[in-house]
Design goal:
Helix content is about 40%, strand content about 20%. By secondary structure, the chain is an alpha/beta fold. The chain has one domain (about 1-250): TIM Barrel (Alpha-Beta Barrel), CATH 3.20.20. The longest helix has 20 residues, at about 100-120.
Length: about 250
């Protein structure tokens, strides 16, 4: 299992190709092994591949725009193949699909053909959760509907948001990993005060040693550090190093 950086954490620094290059350099120097691309500047896939190779940070997954996933699937597949990324991820379903079981079914219907195209191309489509997917809906929840009704769907499990929603990270890791549907996971920590505040890994309440051990047992390949609020708290690179220093001993 490898430890990576989720570049959404660094989004304010990644608004230009030059800034993106600096982020690749900084994450490489900290010691991260892999990366996820999310909320980065416009850049040619060949140039992104070159950055990934220059700084020895393979791209394991992305968060891609929903409109492109649905309406520009073929081009998105080609781009991912250029920079060698096997997982096309969606950060969240659009809001109009969240209100009922029928709405979730409509979401699954709309992504059915893109998911098939992505799978036929030898790639995976993966859904990233927040907390709303665990709100009660029709006697179940959105997340369980996605798992049960779309067996071709993979997942990028977010440990913070599961904990925030009062769910058991280990149970979902076992479930999804056992089905071969979880290769990437977000490691993100939570403070007790102020309640729910995101913080660098090791400064909050999540037990990453236990989570990582379960990931290993369940076949998860990549743990990606994400800190949504890092741009508001000062030096994002320094905060990513705090998380790395806490987590790296678990990955030896």
């Amino acid at each position: 299992m490898k430890l990576g950086a989720q570049f959404y954490t660094l989004r304010e620094r990644n608004k230009t190709p030059e800034g993106l290059r600096e982020s690749f350099k900084a994450m490489h120097e900290i010691g991260y092994d892999v990366a996820q691309m999310s909320a980065i500047c416009q850049i040619a896939p060949e140039a992104l591949r070159d950055l990934s190779e220059e700084f020895s940070l393979p791209i394991t997954c992305t968060h891609s725009p929903y409109d492109r996933i649905v309406n520009d699937t073929d081009a998105l597949i080609r781009e991912h193949k250029i920079y060698g990324c096997e997982v096309i991820g969606l950060g969240s379903m659009p809001g109009n699909y969240r209100g009922s079981v029928e709405a979730v079914n409509a979401f699954l219907k709309e992504i059915e053909e893109p998911v098939k195209k992505i799978a036929d191309a030898g790639l995976r489509f993966a859904y990233h959760n927040h907390a709303f997917e665990f709100d009660p809906i029709g006697g179940t929840c959105i997340y369980d509907l996605l798992i049960e009704k779309a067996p071709a769907l993979n997942f990028i499990l977010d440990t913070y948001w599961l904990h925030y929603a009062g769910q058991d990270n280990l149970a979902y890791i076992r479930r999804l990993g056992g089905e071969g549907r979880l290769t990437n996971i977000h490691f993100k920590d939570m403070k007790t005060e102020p309640k729910g505040a995101i913080c660098p890994c090791g400064e909050g309440v999540l037990d990453f040693a236990t989570i990582k051990a379960q990931c290993e047992k369940s076949g998860v390949l990549y743990a990606l550090v994400e800190q949504d609020n890092a741009p508001e708290l000062g030096d994002e690179y320094a905060q990513m190093k705090v998380s790395y220093d806490h987590l790296k001993p678990l990955f030896r």
